[in-house]
Specification:
Helix content is about 10%, strand content about 40%. It contains two helices and 14 strands.
């Protein structure tokens, strides 16, 4: 079984971008802050997989995939970057986001992943929230991206719109977990009663 998302183009700022799980109404938000003091290229926190790039500000192409084959490369030109673990904290809907501006936009051209073309479009993938996943990050162009970016900067300050790195984030089922459940809905009356010890007048 193999599922591949469309290819998104993410605007990278501050040398990182998130692959995040979309929050669902009713679920308690997971506000986790990645430890950017780490030198790891991939940082996993509840609800997010943060990819760290070698160029501070640029465009990167990103595709998500779900595969049941562990350690299978997306192709000959892809280099392994990191292996991590992830467990869904909401309903498992993963998407690629710009560092600052919300969901990634569609790429301008397809990229080849696992022997097929991933066409430009929404870079999103649905995981099973009752499963846990091994996450493998693969990269293209990363080895010399900073050098190519700096060379382009010296040649033409306005000609930096091309992509410098591409990423394939591959999820492989690794175990099971209790699916996250929405928080219990608490009425206004119950909130006030919990805060003040009794419901206010007129709400008894």
């Amino acid at each position: 079984m193999l599922e591949i998302s469309h290819t998104g183009a993410v605007s990278v700022a501050y040398s990182h971008f998130p692959v995040g799980e979309l929050w669902e109404p009713g679920f308690e938000r997971k506000e986790s802050k990645p430890d950017f003091r780490s030198d790891k290229p991939v940082i996993v926190v509840p609800g997010q997989i943060v990819m760290r790039t070698r160029v501070q500000e640029h465009t990167a192409l990103v595709v998500l995939a779900l595969s049941h084959r562990q350690n299978e490369a997306p192709g000959e030109t892809w280099t392994p970057l990191a292996s991590e673990h992830y467990g869904p904290v909401y309903t498992g809907r993963m998407a690629v986001f710009d560092t600052m501006n919300g969901p990634a936009k569609p790429a301008e051209a397809p990229i080849e992943v696992f022997g097929r073309l991933s066409e430009p479009g929404e870079a999103s993938l649905a995981l099973d929230p009752s499963r846990t996943y091994g996450v493998q990050a693969w990269a293209q162009g990363r080895a010399d991206s900073r050098e190519r970016f700096e060379a382009a900067s010296q040649r033409d300050e306005d000609g930096l719109d091309g992509w410098y790195e591409a990423y394939a984030i591959v999820f492989t089922p690794s175990g099971r977990q209790t699916p996250p459940a929405p928080a219990l809905q608490v009425s206004r009356r119950e909130q006030l009663a919990a805060r003040h010890g009794k419901p206010p007048l007129g709400m008894r």
